[in-house]
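Sequence, structure tokens reproduced for absentees:
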Amino acid sequence: MNLLPDFEAHRAQLRDCLVGANPIIWSNDDFPELAGDLSLDAILGEMRAAGYAGSELGHAYPRTPAALAAALGRHDLRLVSGWHSTHLASRELAAEEAAFRPHLNLLKTLGARVAIVAECTRCIHGARDAALGFGDSDRPRLDEAGWERLNAGLAHLCVAAAAQEMKVVYHHHMGTVVQSESELDRLLAAVPALWLLLDPGHLAFAGIDPVAVARRHAARIAHVHLKSVRPAIVARARCESWSFCRAVSEGVFTIPGDGGVDFPAIFGLLAAADYRGWLVAEAEEDPLKVPALPKARKARDYVRQHAGV
């Protein structure tokens, strides 16, 4: 049996997808020196000019439905989704649910259908000088009690989202407690109602084959971030124990078509699985080194050429 389908045979199915962008292309949420002062209208105007249909949330975006709808409406953009940090392994579930529900309501009110979450207990990706760890002992990890709390908490949030006809999608991320392949597999096995946000850039940076993950978990993918990595910079980051901040500033991430990720293979697997969600371009870099608009346009053209949307 051929597990990697012929892409051309399935191209038409991806035409049911929509293509959005993450504002991190223009302005970084974690590191303000990376164009953190760029105005919302400047971001949205360029996003629309580059050909995108929707946007995820960023730090410059209003968080009330009316104000957000007005901002997006000025540029004929839809709301795709938005990141929500959970601390389910270290905080009370009632407090976590209370923080999650307004976010869920904002997304649903503006037409989004997935809510992005990432467990940020003990996370270090926002710490400017914290070295990223790639082994079992030199990075944030959960003990068994932490895993039990995380799994139960995510299951609870999935029920809350399903009641609103929403899906919770999990964003595996460098510098967090779900970074390795075994951690991601464990999480998905433990919480059947949880969906996967496939981010090939974070997978590749962590030393995981994104195509293998897309193949193994194809039926669980409900959201996709289109981000690649520059292998030479990944190698330096690993060898020299860089922080996430330094890796981003030095250009570890890049857009699809400009890096080491095999996106045509991923698009083929998504099409074979009848994926119909958003494809969201994102690649946080220093916009003074790599201007955002030309990069966004190049990414959009690549998706049009290779995914047919």
